[in-house]
Each structure stands twice: as structure tokens, then as C-alpha cells.
Amino acid sequence: MKKTSERVFKNGNSKAISLSKQTIQLVDFEVGDKVEVQEMNGGLFITKKEDTIKDRITNFFKKGGKYTESEIDFGESVGREI
């Protein structure tokens, strides 16, 4: 496990933690990622929060995504399908 030294600073009425480029690359974070923070053994454990399916769909369309799958042919109708 690698150790890095970061700093806490005041940001408006809140406090923030500034992470170095080295730390960001170490944990593969990107600007805008959501994180989960847990208290563990007197310290903090920070992990990247996985997007919900709703977040993933919203991001897909916000980034100009389009559904481009072609139709699937399931063969001849065998009942009352349209």
C-alpha cells in the first residue's frame, strides 16, 4: 500500500481535501467521479462509487449517445405476434 500526503483546506463554508495527481492516478479517479467515504480504524477509506443504472443511462444520452442496434429477426411468426 502506497502512502501519499495530501492537504485539507477551506472551500467556502466547507472543508475539502486536495488530492495530488499521483494519488488520483494511483486510484484511477477522474474529475467528477462520485466517491463513498467510510470511517475505518480511525481513518478514512475512500472508494469510487459505482454509477446506478439510472446514472449510466442519463450519462449515455447527455454525451449524445444514440441506440444504434439493428433489428433482430426471430424468424417466422408462430402465434399472434404483430
Automatic annotation (TrEMBL):
Domain SpoVT-AbrB stretches: 9-54
Chain segments annotated as transmembrane: none
Name of the protein this chain belongs to: AbrB family transcriptional regulator
Organism (species): Staphylococcus marylandisciuri
